[in-house]
Design a protein that fits this description.
The chain has helices at about 20-35, 70-75, 80-90, 105-115, 125-130, 140-150, 160-170, 190-200, 225-235, 250-260, 280-285, 300-305, 320, 340-350, 350-370, 370-385; strands at about 1-5, 35-40, 55-60, 95-100, 120-125, 155, 175-180, 210-215, 240-245, 265-270, 285-290, 310-315, 330-335. It is of the alpha/beta class and about 400 residues long.
Length: about 400
C-alpha cells in the first residue's frame, strides 16, 4: 500500500530526540520494512538528518505569529497542511491515511472524506488535557477533538484509559483498538561493552546506578528524583541516579538545584544524547526508573528498558500494569509515592541475580509482544478490515476516485 502518514502536531520534530518523534519514525520504518510505501507529512521535520535519511518527509511549516494565539495558529494550520496533503494524494497516489492525533487538526478528516480513503487515527494523549494551560478556547478545542475521534473509521490507542475516555466521548468501542507502544528490539538490546564505556565516562563505576531516559517535562515526575535521592542517601551512599535526556535550560536548572541540595554525587544529569547512543546509556543502568507519568500513558521508555535487559521500576498506572509484571520484569509502586519507589529501588540494590533474571524476562516479553513488527501487523489488519489491500485505484489529477474501500468513506 501507499500510506500517507499525517503528523500536524507542531511540537513533534520528526527528526528529533523526543519519544514521540521516535514513535513516528519507527512506525513508518516498520511499515516500509513490511513492504509498504510511506510518505510523512509533518509540521516540523526536525534537524538531525542522520535520523531520517531513509524516510520521505514533507514539511509544512506553521505560522509563528504569536499575536494569533495558540488556538488560532493551530486551527489556521489546517489550510496549508490540507493543501499539501491533497497535492500528495493527487500527484503520488495514496491508498490509506495513518494519522497521529493532533490538536485542532482536521486535515486528515477532510482528506479522507474528499477521496474516500481508509483512515486510522492514533491517539496517544488527549491534548486538550495535556496542553490546557496553552489553550484560550478550551471548549472549542474540545469540540474539535470530539469531532476528529468520532469521525475516524478506526482508532488505535496506547492504553485502556484512553479507550474508556473515547467511549465516553461517543465513539463506538468496536472502532477502537488498543495498541501499546513498541520498540526496535534490534536497536535496544543488552550490551555490556557499551555500558562499561558509559560508566567510565560519567564516573559511575562501582556504584548502584538507577537510570531514567526521557524528557524533563513536569508530568514525568523529574522533581521526584531529587526527593528520592535525599531519601536514599539516608540509607546508602554508593548510588547514582543517572538522568539521560532533556533540554539545556531544564538540565541547568536541575543541576543548580542539585548543587543547592548537595546531591552532586548522587544525581547526575547527562543531557540529551543521540538516538544511536541511547541503548548503551540504558545498559549502563542497574535498574531503570519511570518516576511518574500520565494515568493514560504507556511510556515508550518502559519497552526500551525491557529490550535492553534492564528491570524497570514504575508507578502502578493501568497501562504500566499491562507492560510490567510486578516482581517479574520489574517492581511497581503507588503513583507519586517517594518512599514506595525508594523501597523498590533498594530491594534490588544488593541482588544482582534477581536484577539479571528480571531483565532477561523483560527482554523475552518485549520481543514477543511489543516489537514494531507486532504493531504493524495490527495496523495492516485494520486496513484489511476496511477492505483496503492497496490494489484499488489511486486519485489522479484532482479527481475524486470511486474506491473499493467503502468503509473508509464512513469518516
Amino acid at each position: 500500500m501507499r500510506i500517507l502518514y499525517l503528523c500536524a502536531d507542531q511540537g513533534i520534530p520528526i527528526l528529533g530526540r523526543h519519544g514521540c518523534s521516535t514513535h513516528v519514525r519507527e512506525t513508518c520504518r516498520a511499515l516500509r520494512a513490511a513492504g509498504h510505501e510511506v510518505t510523512i507529512l509533518a509540521s516540523q521535520k526536525g534537524r538531525d538528518q542522520q535520523l531520517g535519511q531513509d524516510l520521505p518527509i514533507v514539511e509544512v511549516k506553521p505560522l509563528r505569529l504569536r499575536r494569533l494565539g495558540y488556538d488560532l495558529r493551530n486551527a489556521w494550520h489546517n489550510f496549508p497542511f490540507f493543501r499539501r496533503a491533497r497535492e500528495i494524494v493527487e500527484q503520488e497516489g495514496t491508498d490509506a491515511i495513518y494519522e497521529r492525533f493532533s490538536l485542532y487538526s482536521l486535515a486528515g478528516t477532510w482528506l479522507a472524506k474528499r477521496y474516500a480513503l481508509p483512515r486510522i487515527v492514533e491517539v496517544n494523549a488527549f491534548l486538550t488535557v495535556e496542553q490546557r494551560d496553552k489553550l484560550h478556547f478550551l471548549k472549542i478545542a474540545g469540540v474539535v477533538e470530539r469531532y476528529i475521534v468520532r469521525s475516524a473509521p478506526a482508532l488505535v490507542v496506547v492504553s485502556q484509559p484512553l479507550m474508556d475516555t473515547l467511549v465516553e466521548l461517543g465513539v463506538d468501542p468496536a472502532r477502537i483498538h488498543i495498541m501499546p507502544m513498541a520498540v526496535d528490539v534490534s536497536h535496544f538490546r543488552p550490551n555490556r561493552e557499551g555500558a562499561a564505556g558509559i560508566r567510565r565516562k560519567w564516573n559511575l563505576e562501582g556504584r548502584y546506578v538507577v537510570g531514567y531516559v526521557g524528557s524533563l517535562s513536569g508530568w514525568h515526575g523529574i522533581s521526584l528524583l531529587h526527593d528520592m535521592a535525599k531519601l536514599m542517601r539516608r540509607q546508602r551512599r554508593d548510588f547514582a541516579i543517572f538522568v539521560v535526556g532533556g533540554e539545556k535550560g531544564q538540565i541547568e536548572r536541575h543541576r543548580q538545584r542539585v548543587a543547592r541540595e548537595g546531591l552532586g554525587e548522587h544525581l547526575v544529569f547527562a543531557g540529551s544524547v543521540p538516538y544511536q547512543e541511547v541503548p548503551d546509556h540504558i545498559c549502563a543502568m542497574d535498574v531503570a526508573l519511570v518516576p511518574d507519568t500520565n494515568f493514560w500513558t504507556c511510556p515508550t521508555k518502559i519497552f526500551e528498558y525491557q529490550a535492553s535487559g534492564v528491570p524497570a521500576i514504575a508507578p502502578k498506572y493501568p497501562a504500566v500494569l499491562g507492560a510490567i509484571g510486578d516482581g517479574e520484569e520489574g517492581l511497581l509502586f503507588e503513583p507519586r509515592d517517594v518512599s514506595g519507589s525508594v523501597a523498590c529501588i533498594l530491594r534490588l540494590a544488593d541482588d544482582p541475580e534477581l536484577r539479571r533474571a528480571m531483565g532477561e524476562r523483560a527482554r523475552r516479553r518485549v520481543v514477543g509482544t511489543h516489537s514494531w513488527q507486532h504493531n504493524i501487523a495490527t495496523i495492516i489488519a485494520l486496513y484489511a478490515q476496511m477492505g483496503c489491500d492497496g490494489d484499488g485505484p489511486r486519485p489522479q489529477h484532482g479527481r475524486r476516485p470511486q474506491r473499493s474501500c467503502e468503509k473508509g468513506a464512513e469518516s
